[in-house]
Amino acid sequence: MTLPIPDTEAITAAVNTAHQAMLQVDGGKNADYIPYLASVPSGLAALAVVTREGTVVEAGDSRFAFAIESISKVATLALIMETIGRDALREKVGSDPTGLPFNSVMALELAQGKPMSPLVNAGAIATASLVEGATADARWDKILDMQSRLAGRPLSLSDEVNQSEQTTNFHNRAIAWLLYSAGTCYSDPMEALDIYTRQCSTLLDTVDLATMGATFANGGVNPKTGERVVSKDNVPPILAEMMMEGLYTFSGDFAYIVGLPGKSGVGGGMLAVAPGKLAIAAFAPPLDEAGNSVRALAGISAVAKSLNLDLFSA
Ligand code: DON
Q1: Comparing C-alpha atoms, which of 177, 94, 188 is closest to residue 139?
Q2: Is the pTM of the predicted complex or chain greater than 0.90?
Q3: Quick check: CB of 129 below 6 Å from ligand 1?
Q4: pLDDT band at 3, cuts 50/70/90?
């Protein structure tokens, strides 16, 4: 079904107004458990919309490159769903919200070592462990290739972000070993963690992020390159998973307020997808307690509201 896209004038007005609204919102704090993230200027704020036809509307610091962090989990989820199929992925990793923070060890313990969702750290490490390849580099190339095809241009790893994460990711190491002991890490756990950590360390800007989302809004075909990146059948379960767990303990609130599948990252990025229409991406580093960007949430909610994108309001 082809849905009507709001006209470009309406999108431009919505994006500009919402960007101004983002700048009025205070509060939150840069993530600092990854030292690099604490050093990113807190005042940056960007908003972008990319439609399923490839129209780009942007405002603010939309070409500033930031760390993708947890939003990378969506790309690796897509890669593995394409490789082993949605049923196998659901059986091995799960498809339910944990109701607990994104790096919760307790969630893993409560579910006898099953991560529940590919969008929490445990599930993302398990998903990364399913990437096929003879070496860690070969596996990593597949992840980066998927991220790049979704964004519609070659993305690259930031050595600075990667170093910052690889030398401080002790909590994630514990999660990887717990998965391994439960039989839910499907490769060497430290290798899975290595490529998971790399996948979080890619840099992209807000337009790249909106293009990734627009690929899902367009049924898996990147509107910028015209390439089919994800099969049509795999798009709905990816978006369902984003709706259920994309913003962690705030996912229900996000569904309630915005009414769209979304995904956030501790780098300050946030994405929302209006299926069949467009994607909205925002970036601003200060985060709330759940690990979601305070200003990005304000910007995305404002655009979704002014363009009437809530999926639950027919
Ligand atoms: O593994 C971590 O903790 C980070 N590399 C990513 C976490 C993240 O982005 C959670 N998002 N809101």
Answers
A1: 188
A2: yes
A3: no
A4: confident
